[in-house]
Structures are given as C-alpha cells and as structure tokens.
Amino acid sequence: MNEKNPLGLKKIHHVEFFVGNAKQAEFYYRNAFGFSRVAYSGLETGNRDATSYVLRQNRVNFILTTPLHEKTFASEHLKIHGDGVRDIAFQVEDCDYAFNEAVKRGAKVFQEPRDISDENGKIRYAAIHTYGDTIHSLISYQGNAYGKSVSSGSMAAQPASEYVYNGAFLPHFAPSEIKGKEVGIQLIDHIVGNVELGKMNHWADFYSNVLGFHRYITFDDKDISTEYSALMSIVMSDGGHNIKFPINEPAEGKGGKSQIQEYIDYYKSAGVQHVALLCKDILKTVDKLQKNGVEFLRVPDEYYEEIPERVGEIDENIEDLKRLGLLVDRDDEGYLLQIFTKPVEDRPTVFYEILQRKGCKGFGKGNFKALFVSIEEEQRRRGNL
Ligand code: FE2
C-alpha cells in the first residue's frame, strides 16, 4: 500500500445490480449483451432472501440480484430506486487493512470485515458507502477463480493467506453455466456517478481522500452545455489509471432540466449513471449488439459530415460509423470510438457506453454537444425537459 493506492485496490471485482426480475434481466444480458452465466444463488442453493445470477464476459463480471421477500434491504432499495447499481465491488490486497484505512480516511461503514466461506474456501468481506445508496465492497482472497489483477506489480510477495477461494465465483454461489454469444466486451473502462447539485466536489474529495484517487480531467458547464442539458463533471482516477470514476452534477441550463437532474428525480438519489464497456473492435461489437436488439442513441446525420475536419484521418470508413451510429473524438494521443445505449430499464436511469480506444485517453468531449441534443430529444419525448 502506498499514497497512490492507500487501500491496496487490485481491480473492480464485479458490479452488482438490484433488479425487479433477475431471471428476465439475466436473459437480456446474455442474449442482448453476449454475457455468459457462470454462477447462481437462490432457493436451490439455500439462499432464502434473494436470487442472484453472475454474468461474465472476458474481464467484466455483473451480478443481477432480486429480493425474494419484502424484509430485505434489496427490496427497499428496489422500491425506491428501481433497477440500478447497488455495489461497485473491489478486490483488495487485504480487506481488513483496506477497510480500516478507508474508515480512518473518512469512509462511512456499511459492513465491518467478516469471513464468508463455503466448501470451496473462504474470503474476507467488508463494505463502505459511497454516493446515494451505492456501496463499495472490499473483498480479499487468493486463488481467485477468474482473471488477473489489472494493477500489475501490486501482488508481488504476498504472504500465504487463510483466505483462499476456488469456487465458481464467491462463497454461496453454485456453478451454473449457460454460454452467451460473446460480442467482444472486454473490460470496464469507467463507471459514472450522478450526484446532487453542489455535491460533485464533495464526492471527488471522497475519492481523493478515502481511495487516494486524483483528478484526471475536469469538464465544466462551458464544455458540457446545450440549450438545456448542462452538467459538470470531474473524472477521478486511481494512480495506475485502471479505475476511473467520473462524477457528474447537474448545472443550470437555459430553462430546461439537466439530464443529470432527470436521472436523480427518477433514481430518487445519486447513483450510477452509466457503465462504460471497452471493446477491441467496436464495429463488430456494436453490429452484434444492434442485431441482438440493444437500442442506442443516434445523432443527426450532419454529425458525420463534420468528422474529417474535426478529427482528421481515422482507420474506419465514415459510412460504417454512420450506419452504426458510432461517435468519434480525438485528443493529443489518438482517438476513440463510442456509442451510448438508451436506458436499459423503464425509468430514465442507468445506461451503457460501448467504446474502443485508439490511443485516446479522453471521454469524448467533442461529442458531448451532439450527444446531448439527442438526449434532450429523448427527455422531451418523456415530458421531462
Ligand atoms: Fe462515459
């Protein structure tokens, strides 16, 4: 552990969603987004409170959880927020160390460290609060059944631990395999939080004080302002630039409602706005997603006429980008291709970004304007502008 990574974070272990009908959501993520089911927890495995499905595509792990009765925290969460992200869980080098350090640095406790075990081994688990009703679980174990750490080097010389787990996922999950048709999603690139008006700096400070993150990029309302949908954003990043959490807050538009405020009005608090999923060949990935029925936002056709002048030479054919509705932006180091889904539940809350980076480390600032005009159009159709 050092000042750059004071909690000893290794990677995002998984993202857990509380949803109204996990069985149907699992079908959607498998058949539309190409995830495979790898594990299950529910009545058949002795879980009397909730059903959870674990979905995986390369290094992305999602848990979809539905409560089985009203006396659970999950049912209260679901009643207030609808479907949404409950937990951005980290794998850490040492759960107790990470937890104690986080609390010392000002984190609010959700769960003190405890052991969770089954016949396949034991893990150490704790959790802290972040914005809204969202938490960060802090999980430590060795012999992890999937993937490698993204922060290379930090695992060196780790002493043997009693916390070793070799089951399908985590304790109390049984293996349950249904292969999805992979679409090429590789990794979580960033996860964006929407917070209340005036709270952006507070939560940026939280990530800097508690997790040791730094301010990576800041966008103010001059960068991100259309007629209505003004917002401000600070991108917080860990020292190794493996974990990036942009934090958005609404800004005063010219008389309309910021898209961030619309989210907060429907989610009923701060929460995760979008999860950005990185792929290696976005033309192939988005073509498959669209054939599977995933709905994306589209920008007006004129956007594509301005690409050569705005971003210069790119490898892709502009007609292909236009056909799929892909957006492109450039910074000093290269360019990126990106596209945004419509919200994936009935409330206008959580959505996904699919992106490919070709050197560019930015977030598509050059696309904000065109994109937000499309978002406003959707907001107008929902009667929320
Ligand atoms: Fe994004």
Can you walk through the features of this model?
Strand 15 (327-331) and strand 16 (334-340) form a beta hairpin. Strands 6-7-8-5-1-4-3-2-9 form a nine-stranded mixed beta sheet. Strands 11-12-13-10-14-17-16-15 form an eight-stranded mixed beta sheet. The termini are far apart. It is of the alpha+beta class and 385 residues long. The protein has helices at 22-31, 73-81, 95-104, 200-209, 259-267, 282-291, 302-305, 307-311, 318-324, 368-381, and strands at 9-18, 36-41, 50-57, 60-67, 84-92, 109-118, 121-129, 135-140, 174-178, 185-194, 214-219, 231-237, 244-250, 271-279, 327-331, 334-340, 351-358. The longest helix is centred in the C-terminal third of the chain and has 14 residues, at 368-381. The model is unreliable at 146-157 (pLDDT under 50). Helices cover 23% and strands 34% of the residues. It folds into two domains: 9-178, 2,3-Dihydroxybiphenyl 1,2-Dioxygenase, domain 1; 185-382, 2,3-Dihydroxybiphenyl 1,2-Dioxygenase, domain 1, CATH 3.10.180.10. The protein has ten helices and 17 strands.
